[in-house]
Amino acid sequence: MKTFAKWLSILLSVCLLLSLTVISASAVATPLPNDNYDRPTVSANKITVRPMVDGKLDDKAWKQATKIDFTQDSLAAGDGLLWSYPDGDDFTELPPDGNGNAYFGWDAEYIYFALQIEDEEHVNNRVQGWDLWREDCLQVQVCHGTSGMFDNSARYELGFAYNESQNRQLGMRWTDYDVGDFLRANKVTDMSKGAGADYYYFVGRDDAKYTTTYEIALKHSWLGGDGLESGEKFMFSFSLHLHEEKLPPACLSNPEAYDGYFMEWAQGLVTGKTMSDAGIITCVGASSDDDKDPTTTTTTTTTRITTTTTTTTTTGNNRPGTTTTTTTTTGNNQQGNTTVPPSNTR
Q1: How many Cβ atoms sit within 10 Å of the Cβ of residue 255?
Q2: Average pLDDT of the chain, as a whole number
Q3: Three-state SS for 63?
């Protein structure tokens, strides 16, 4: 019996050592080097008829919105970064999931954003609340104006996901290192019949077409603004998390344990937690071609602007909420494990 207990103890020790090794390997976030990156700017069309927020893009609002490509190729061409886990140096192994289109729009009160992507399985059935980012989800950061280039205090970071097993909408606003607010789980809402809430969102899933659609409306005053008009600008970044491996349940209690990769449009969200590198969105008038089909016709108005900021190697962690002003960060993609200058603390 003693011999059995001794060997059992040795076996358990070896298993623990191997599990720690695996967790450590998967904890490092590595970006695909991108010498082409330059902060993207988009001219967002005004929306004259508010959408039905239902996780679909078949109404007039999204026909009016500006549509841009969101693919691994478009990110590599200069729009953003790919972050790989755990084998960050082997980007040839990334599956061709997550490709699709993003949409930007606005009216006097709301910022509108949608993302439609293809992925054979894109649901979050296991992780909720502060850890929402660790499964399939969309993260966005937004500033109501362009002050975020110099001051991070107006930064909002939000997360959205769909729990298929419970048919639930999941939303989170991260406000600090390990603090966040749950976003009210929205139901289908026709904003054209009246809208006054701070935000609306809905995540739709079409298993037959392998598509997931994120549809979001954010009230400008909720973000600290006083309304929008043509010519005004705001800052925006977003990151799609594609969780490709199924971790054992025990690993969910360990913040170092996750797998998959991130597709980040613009920068400052996956690492850094800063608006200074976010994309700049300019509000322009309504489209003259309101009847175009938003699911088949691409209207890309992405341009580039040059900044004097020099960014060196960027590796980091994706815990939401906190910020750093350093240009080189290392670590993993846990939310918020960064240095926070006092001036950037909420």
Answers
A1: 20
A2: 74
A3: helix
Rounded to an integer, what distance in angstroms lies between the CA atom of residue 56 and that of residue 179?
Answer: 31
Q: Identify whether the C-beta of residue 275 lies closer than 8 Å to the C-beta of residue 148.
A: yes
Cα(161)–Cα(136) distance, integer angstroms: 7
pLDDT of residue 270 exceeding 70, the answer is yes
User: Percent of the chain at pLDDT above 70?
Assistant: 64
∠ at Cα 104 (49, 175), nearest 5°? Answer: 110
Instruction: Using DSSP, state whether 24 is helix, strand or coil.
Output: helix
- Kindly state the DSSP code that residue 75 receives in the 8-state scheme: I
Nearest partner of 255 among 323, 177, 187, 144, judged by Cα:
177
| pLDDT on residue 289 | 54
Q: Which residues pair with 283 in a beta bridge?
A: 44
Provide the token pair at 187.
């139901």
Six-digit token string for 11: 């076996």
Burial 176-212 (b: 16+ CB within 10 A, else e): ebbebeebeebeebebeeebeeebbbbbbbeeeeebb
Q: Provide the pLDDT for residue 162.
A: 93
What residue type is assigned to position 221 of the chain? S
Tens-digit pLDDT profile for residues 215-229: 999 999 999 999 999
Please say whether the beta carbons of 138 and 160 come within 8 A: yes
Query: Collapsing DSSP states into helix, strand and coil, what is residue 138?
Result: strand
pLDDT value, residue 96: 66
